Amino acid sequence: MSSNAITVPGAQIDEKPWVDTLHEWVTTVDHKRLGVLYIGYALLLLVVAGIEALIIRIQLMYPHNDFVSPQVFNRMFTMHGTTMIFFVAMPILFGFANYLVPLMIGARDMAFPRLNAFSFWLSALGGLFLYFSLVGANGLYGAGNAPDVGWWAYAPLTARAFSPGHSSDYWTLSLLASGFGSIGTAINIVATVLCMRCPGMKLSRMPLLVWLNLVMSGMVLITITPLSAAQIMLLVDRYLGGHFFDAQAGGSAVLWMHFFWIFGHPEVYVLIIPCFAFMSEIIPVFSRKPIFGYPVMVAATVCIGFVSMSVWAHHMFTVGMNSYANSFFTITTMAVGVPTGIKIFNWLGTMWGGRIQFKTPMLFSIGFLFQFLMAGLTGVMLACAPFDWQLGSSYFVVAHFHYVIVGGILFALFAAFYYWYPKITGRMLSEALGKWHFWLFLIGFHLTFDLMHIPGLLGMPRRIYTYEPGRGWDTLNLLITAGAFIQAIGTVLFVANLVISYCNGKKAGNDPWDAWTLEWSTNSPPPPYNFASIPVVASRRPLWDLKHPEDPDSRYE
Amino acid sequence: MQALRSTNSFARGPLAVLLSVIWQASAVVGAVPPALSPTNIFASESTPAKSIAHLSVFVFVITGIIFVVVFTLLVYSIIKFRGRAGDAGREPAQVYGSTQIELAWTIIPILIVVVLFLATARVIHAIQDASQPPSAIEVTAIGHQYWWEFRYPKLGIVTANEMHIPVSDPENPTPTFLTLLSADTDHSFWIPELAGKTDLIPNHPNRMWMDPHRTGIFLGQCAQYCGVQHAKMLLRVSVDSPEDFAAWVRSQQRPAVQDESVAAGRRVFESTACINCHAVARTNANGRFGPDLTHLMSRATIASGAAPNTPEKLRLWIQDPNKIKPGSLMPAMQLSDTDLDAVVSYMETLR
Fold first, then answer.
1. Which of residues 322-341 of A touch B (CB under 8 A)?
2. Which residues make beta-bridge pairs with B210?
3. B111 & B11 share domain
4. What is the pTM of this model?
5. Residue B283 CB neighbour total at 10 angstroms
């Protein structure tokens, strides 16, 4: 199975005109190309939203700084948040899911290839709407350009009275378009996993990455729907005289919060579960052991999927719910920590007794474990409603969720890049540059986000474009900004690594990591049809069985 | 309303004793914070803030213990089980799981969650379900883009941005109960050393209370993004001794000073758009959109804390509010220098 591709004797690769290549990429329905499109699109916006973050940090370096105006600052944090969640994290994770799920279950493509292409282009349209607001949103009132209502856009700030012009409309349209794209992709992943598995690949033998993406897709179906509904209600409020969220006319601002957070909190798990998936593939390979407690890992994920649907109002502890509601959301939120903790322990159990190889993907995975542990524990603090009355909407919260999103999700994504880049391009990423990237990013990350908890404890609210001196926040903010720039340098090295290695990287071969799942059995990059003959599997680690015929996994499962 | 009593409700046993000790110690640690900042959540000076600080330290310690244990295990396994040069090609023992171990690390976290939840639920109940004693001071706080309106319905006082409340002696409590409203977008009332924050949401009245244990100025600011100048929607609470508070109430209840020497400034004020938004009690000025100016000079700051209340800053503010607070909803009135000076002189008589 080691060269599972058809070799056509004498086949030559002709240089095609670039227009043809472009045409092929634009019209493609191949899951691998769409995966690469998703990832490339997300990386581009990662750089854009990263620059927005740097603008925010420069403004906050000193008290009473005037690097940007308050209007520009408010647009920057709105665009940074919206872009990072909807147009970086979501598409990049969908990209990896698109690329890897069919390969890992031994399929030739997704269940609905054209829906797949449609979903990608809808998501891309969403990003275009968001950034077109910079030129198109001036509207009749000449009011602002980019949206400035925050990434959760609380009513009634989005009402026409407070947000004239069209910037909020572009925000709404961008989330509507990308939301429908996400729903399409989620349907596709669910259908693919349920219907397209190769012979022998029972549900109980699927790689954890596939299982976790299945759970993630189910969550997307349930959570994006209320978000899209709320966007339509907002448009009705703004243009058809509706009063869903218009408090001046008897509507409810709190209703919007419920709609937004019943999407917003499960969304965190929609983003982190695929990252758990990367960890569950990468940690075993570099520890040279199978994942510890596979059935429990699956059960814990499904459990997170369900429980995370009942925790949303922990974002609303300060809006004046009664003590019973606050207690309920405290216990559900703490409860979701239990299956999450089980996952950390199981990865620890996987490394225990192994022979850990510190290649770059594993370095980022280890970073993930420590940082996700910390993020989970600050999450427990925020789950205590009274503690949240102090910490909510402060820089402590900003530090907490960046710990999840950067320390958790982004580190897992970097690990995934270093791990699967050889499969996608056929070339290894440079280990030397990778280690520089890891250490710089790690130092920058901790400088920024460890310290960021403290101003929150000292009363600094989020989303302020400037602050008063003499509150004990000045030095901390300066150091936080310094850390942001170190992370930026690390990211530049990463992008450079992607480009340089694509041209000059070491040839990867089919299976550079001596791994065990099906994607490593075919060529790097895989041919359009993925597998010359559909593989047949007998265990969770088909390539282990091939490499160790004397002691196959199928004997123990 | 009652302060948190130490808990003895944990069942007996070494773990229960340990938890009980941590809970007791948390109260001590939570009570002596370092002086890092005037808005430190651990420098609590009021019952709600104190019980939150107490709970916070307890949660810090429990999560801290978890962190140290898991961190140590991770570091240990990374060092102990690192790949070595000698084991090229050989694979370690393939272990697929262990039901006992997995059960253990499911049940222990569940128990920790139960403990944390019980400790939290007590504090939620103690703060949220406290009843209002007859001696309480009632204040209605109304959030506006980008300033605070304070009304004392029983005392007939309307003021802005700087709230005065009496210190509350635990023996003879005079807590302050706030009704929180909003005139436009969402805001949040946050004085970290006195209480946790509660949002001010239009069409959704909220409530909070505080019983400051010492006099002084307490700082805070709006904690829910409310628009362009969210950052400069600062809050000052002056906790007064009972005598000072009574004096402040008397001075606020007096009608506006009528000083004939500034009649020109008053004329300018009352004949421009100023009075559409601002009120000076018992004059033609009865606008409600901006802060009440009847006793402007009794306040230490203007523009919701964005500038000190000095004649120069006041003049600059009236001339062009964007110079101090860009995006403020108060327009520049384009007054001539003469009119500007006259209005500032008039303002300075509003004691």
1. 322-323, 326-327, 330-331, 334-335, 337-338, 341
2. B176
3. yes
4. 0.93
5. 16
